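Ops channel
N.P.: pipeline sanity check, posting one input/output pair.
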């Protein structure tokens, strides 16, 4: 398989955006278009480093109409590089210094027009919203067809119209947003500090300021949907001493408030440094990090005292579990083999098998999806959960086995997959409030064990979401309020592909099925349809993808599918 088609699409998208900007620059102005066709724009991938392309904003011209002042102010929202000095010229003196551009970014598609209410001093602009970005860089896609109205009040200042009232924040057309903002993964820890958990943020600025923005966002803590599900080495309240993180010869110098840093143990400081380094590796300019208490370097211990590095983008083993003639089998390299030591399972009409990361624990649903069984070589199968239309089982890397019920009660079940002296351990039943009234069709734990991909339906419309897993000690206790990923295939099933990508689809025994790949940092993409697709299995990355049909197992080849093994069904990588 080759990565060329995907890279080519990404390169074309980036080149198109940059070319458009350069054409505007050559014309002397990089203004936001006010008209043009309205269309849907997918989220484009962020860059590894900021692109230092300067936009030129037009200052107000004498005698400009009130509508022109509103439209000029919106166009000047590209002034990231100089703190929006031109945009402030459109504001009257009372708000020019207090208006906060970084409070919110509204990303819109198509054009816009300032419309008066008839008074001559009150205007509104309707935007076709693609997404919004909050001050911490958290981007929320808008629902298809979403429209937001922004209101402006104007007054005369020395005979010239100026804006006297406008909400904080800027408005950017998608092409300009894609040039001015980049996606970065801030890294936090799972509660055991064994895994790194990405928290994707969209930040703006030149290369000289991006390092500071990333560190500031990291110190502010995780996004709301990860709050409580992940840990940070930095205690609450720790801040940058000065609003700058200089980088010299690849070394980022991070000056933190002295007392909290001096009070921290050497182990905690090492974890802080590791967390910063993982996060700043987004920038090719940073190769190491120095921690300082105000301006004094702190003790980070000796090399033999170093803490183990957290596992980033946890990989699954290269083989899968699948079904062949009613029995669980191991599938790898185009061949299926018997799993030694497993009992005969055909009497259960097993479906949706799962395998743990250690490859010694297995699970499956019975034929009517009402019972979940766990089994391991040399041990008899045991029922660990029951319910209505249970979702396909999912192992966490900590060997908890998860499923959810499809009865709209918001029930999620987690069971320790191992046994103690041959006896099953007690499971945990969660009653998730935000899932009540919804039919859960897919529940998959991420490969860091701190998040879950949840697909649910209401009134025939599916929602794809990512939630954080809250724990009390080692025991799961709840799920956080999720973030939503827009999907265009009305998905009911999904799998993780890496730390920021998932693949989703809606099965059909007879019709063509399209798979859509959703990424927290990149554009959504679709694969060619495959007739009769019933399940998905995701390996390590967007190219390592398999589909199960009644005929057998298909592998992704380019943008399509190729039959790889007849009679082998329900494939699943670990997790």
């Amino acid at each position: 398989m080759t990565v060329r088609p995907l890279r080519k699409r990404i390169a074309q998208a980036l080149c198109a955006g940059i070319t458009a900007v350069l054409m505007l620059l050559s014309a002397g102005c990089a203004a936001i278009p006010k008209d043009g066709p309205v269309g849907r724009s997918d989220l484009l991938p962020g860059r590894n480093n900021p692109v230092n392309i300067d936009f030129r904003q037009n200052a107000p011209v004498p005698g400009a109409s009130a509508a022109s002042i509103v439209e000029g102010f919106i166009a000047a929202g590209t002034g990231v590089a100089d703190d929006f000095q031109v945009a402030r010229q459109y504001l009257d003196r009372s708000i020019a210094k207090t208006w906060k551009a970084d409070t919110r970014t509204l990303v819109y598609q198509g054009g816009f027009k300032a419309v008066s209410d008839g008074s001559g001093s009150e205007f509104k602009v309707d935007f076709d919203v693609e997404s919004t970005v909050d001050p911490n860089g958290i981007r929320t896609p808008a629902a298809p067809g979403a429209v937001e109205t922004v209101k402006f009040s104007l007054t005369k200042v020395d005979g010239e119209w100026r804006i006297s009232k406008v909400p904080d924040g800027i408005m950017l057309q998608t092409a300009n947003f894609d040039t001015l903002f980049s996606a970065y993964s801030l890294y936090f820890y799972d509660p055991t500090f064994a895994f790194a958990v990405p928290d994707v943020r969209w930040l703006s600025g030149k290369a000289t300021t991006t390092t500071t923005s990333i560190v500031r966002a990291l110190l502010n803590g995780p996004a709301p949907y990860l709050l409580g599900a992940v840990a940070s080495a930095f205690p609450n309240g720790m801040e940058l001493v000065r609003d700058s993180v200089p980088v010299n010869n690849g070394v980022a110098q991070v000056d933190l408030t002295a007392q909290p840093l001096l009070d921290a143990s050497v182990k905690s400081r090492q974890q802080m440094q590791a967390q910063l380094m993982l996060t700043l590796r987004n920038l090719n300019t940073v190769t190491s990090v120095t921690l300082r208490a105000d301006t004094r370097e702190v003790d980070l211990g000796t090399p033999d005292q170093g803490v183990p590095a957290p596992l980033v983008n946890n990989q699954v083993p290269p083989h899968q579990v699948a079904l062949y003639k009613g029995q669980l089998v191991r599938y790898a390299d185009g061949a299926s083999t018997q799993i030694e030591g497993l009992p005969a399972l055909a009497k259960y009409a097993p479906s949706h098998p799962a395998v743990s990361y250690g490859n010694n624990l297995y699970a499956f649903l019975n034929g009517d999806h009402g019972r979940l069984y766990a089994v391991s070589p040399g041990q008899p199968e045991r029922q660990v959960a029951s319910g209505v239309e249970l979702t396909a089982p999912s192992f966490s890397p900590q060997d908890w086995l998860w499923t959810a019920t499809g009865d709209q009660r918001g029930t999620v079940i987690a069971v320790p997959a191992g046994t103690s002296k041959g006896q099953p351990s007690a499971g945990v039943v969660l009653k998730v409030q935000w899932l009540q009234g919804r039919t859960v069709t897919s529940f998959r734990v991420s490969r860091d064990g701190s998040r879950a991909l949840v697909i649910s339906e209401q009134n025939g419309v599916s929602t794809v979401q990512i939630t954080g897993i809250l724990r009390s000690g080692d025991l799961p206790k709840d799920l956080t309020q999720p973030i939503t990923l827009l999907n265009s295939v009305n998905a009911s099933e999904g799998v993780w592909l890496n730390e920021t990508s998932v693949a989703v689809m809606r099965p059909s025994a007879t019709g063509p099925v399209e798979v859509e790949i959703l990424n927290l940092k990149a554009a959504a993409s679709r694969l060619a349809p495959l007739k009769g697709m019933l399940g998905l299995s995701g390996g390590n990355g967007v190219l390592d993808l398999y589909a199960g049909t009644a005929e057998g197992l298909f592998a992704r080849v380019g943008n399509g599918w190729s039959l790889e093994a007849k009679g082998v069904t329900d494939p699943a990588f670990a997790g």
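N.P.: looks fine end to end. Residues 4-180 form one domain.
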